[in-house]
Every structure is written in C-alpha cells, then in structure tokens.
Queue: 2 jobs
Job 1
Amino acid sequence: MLSRLTPEELRKISAERMLVHWQETNRFCGTCGAAMMRHANPAENAFVCPVCGYLAYPKICPAVIVLVTKGDKILLQRNSHYGLNNWTLVAGFVEPGENFEDAVRREIAEEASIEVKDICYFGSQSWPFPSTVMVGFRAEYASGTLTPDGEEVLKSDWFDKDHLPEIPHPGSIARQLIDAWRFP
Ligand SMILES: [Zn+2]
C-alpha cells in the first residue's frame, strides 16, 4: 500500500495510526496508575493524569536503517522475522544514550560483524508499525568479515546491481535507499 500513497496521504495515515496506538496503550498513568484523561486543550495531543498531573505525549521510537556499500556491492540480509525470500537492509532501534551514528555502527556490528565508515544521512520515513520513525543512512564497509548473527539475521551477502535478490517493496525507505544507489 505504501507505494500507492502520496507523501501527504502517508503522513496523515501514519499520524492516525500512531495516535490510535498511543491512546490504546496510555489508558493509565505510568506514574501512579490512575485512569488518564485527555488534555483539556483538544489541540494538545496529550493525556493528563487527574491524580498526579503526569503528562503523557505520543511516543515515537527512532530506528536507523542503513545501506552499506562495499565497492560496487551492497549488503542485504534475510531476517528471521521476515518471510524467507525477503532480503532487506540492516535496521534497528536507537538505544538510550545513543545518537543515530552510534546506532548505525552498533546495529551493523551486531547483525553483520563488520565495521563501517563515512556514515551519511539519506532521509527519513514515518513508519507507524506501531510508532517508529525510520532514519536512513548510507555507510561504506571499513573492515571485518561479514557474518550474520544467526538469530535475528539468518543470511547476509554482498550484491551488485545486476544480481539483486527480491528487494523491499516500493514506497519503503529501504527501497528508496536501494533505488538511489542503483539509479544514481
Ligand atoms: Zn498519575
């Protein structure tokens, strides 16, 4: 469906989906356990606790997604939680204390056992499954032997433009990263 939506439609649907998820998962105060109420100002997307005053705003979780290049090839991998035929890019949530570049380096080291250099921002995409913003980067291989972690990542390999496997769907930032590389 992503590929058929305009950016404006995607933004609206994303926002609605994230807000519904946020409302469903913030019915009680995380501090004192009382039932939450909507903020008195309807323009304010917030719940407020009538007992302790705790304010809860929608939570958006940043995740990084990275196209790693090595010469004229890119790194693709098969993840255990996707279908077996789907190859995709290294991706993962940003952890507390990290900046985006830290998360890029850690995810690649964890999932593929390699080091990268020249990390470069590409673009971002709201990803309401349930409440993520995907932040896209490119990076160049620096060192190490490509080794999938065997748990989250079952298989990984380098692919050139003429021998790509089935790649992520049009409309996803993963596909945008791959298309920007193969149709420069
Ligand atoms: Zn409370």
Job 2
Amino acid sequence: MTNWCDTHIHLDAPELNGQGLDLLPAAQKCGINKFVVPGVLVSSWDGMVALAENAESVYLAPGLHPAYADQWTPEAEQLLQYMTASQKVVAIGEIGLDGSVKSSMQQQEVVLRAQLQIALDARLPVLLHARQATGQLLAILRELEIGKKIGGSWHGFSGSLQVAQELAELGFKIGVGPILLRANARKLPDAVKALPTSALVLETDLPYMAEKPEIILKVAEKVAELRHCSLAETARFTTENANKLFGFQDRSIYGK
Ligand SMILES: [Zn+2]
C-alpha cells in the first residue's frame, strides 16, 4: 500500500460547509493518510483545532494569510504562539506576501515577519504563499535564513525553474499541485523534471484547486511521468519529504 501526504488542503474552508472530514474516508482508501490544513483567517483557527481533534490524520499549520494581514493583533500573535505547543501543529501557514490583494505590502511584511519569528521560536517549518511578490518574499527568507533553520514548502508553486532551484538550494520544498495538470502549464513541468527528489511535496489546495483529495494521485501520476519513475517511487519520496519536513512521527508519540 502506498502512502500519500497532502501538504496543503483547506478542509475547514467555508465552501465545504463543515463537511470537510467527510472527504477523508475515500481519500484514505487511496492511501492518502496525512493532511496538513493551513490557516487563512484568525477566526478559522478554532475550527481547525476541532478538525484535528476529530481526525487522527489531520495536522495543522495555523497562521494568517497575507490577504487578511489587517486582522493581525497582539492577541492573534499570542494565540498563534500558544498554538505551537499542540502536537497537532506541524507548521505555520499559510503566510507570505500577495501583491494582488488590498492589504498593504508594508502591513503584510510586518505580519509575515512576526509569524516567521513564531515559527523560528517554535522550530516549526512554514507553508508559504506568494503572489506577485516572489522576489520580495525570497529576500526576507534569505535574510532570516528560514530555509536552513526551519524549512518549509512554497505552496502552489508556478514560478520559473530558476526560482525553483534557488528555493531548493535554500532548503525549501516545492508544493506541486493541480497547476501541473493544466494543459497550458509550461514552467512547473520543467521544475518538476529538474529538481532534486528531496525538493518535491504534493498538495491539492482543495477546495480552491481541486474538489476531491484523490486529485493528488493525478498530480502524482504526472510527476512520475515527467521524472520517468514509478508511481510507487513518487509516493515514497514525496511522503518521505513531507514526513521529514513536518515531523509527524516525532510529534505523534505525544498523541493518541
Ligand atoms: Zn491555500
């Protein structure tokens, strides 16, 4: 039996009307048995905790999405710090910079730096979100040596091979998702072909990029095809990378 990890899945998204966990039995039949749920709003963190309490396979990456940077308060900062003590919290996310939203870049950067500091203090990796701000985000990650110190995954990657290689060298994983299945995808296939095995993890970004968790198998088939390896081999290295990044094993000894 192959095992898969979905490193970025919004099981608590309002679009799923509280039914996110209902998607898991079918996914688990396909061997998808680890799910990392990223935070979006401060007000979503409670619901995430409830999800993780009700499903052994669900892990959390709480954080504030850059689009909602104006929600950041001293109370939110304290709460996020507090959450890092939970054995179900395996990362901080999704955090980053987004040039396409209304919250100002200055505010986004303040919120990003505060969350990176929380991740550094807790020795947790980060789930990164970047849109129209790749260079700026890269500069901050370099400055704070985030790749070397805690690592992370660059979610929904669709940039150039050069940026992908730079991220891999800095110690980050590339989150490969349904963008790879687009007929017009050009840059991402090149990165998937050329990157070292150790740099790739899989994600669905459900419900925004996929309706069912099983789409991850379609993404994996494409990865296997591009890299001329078997599906089993793709499961092995992507799952191993996710396990190493998030340390599920280490943390599960405290769980049930
Ligand atoms: Zn997302």
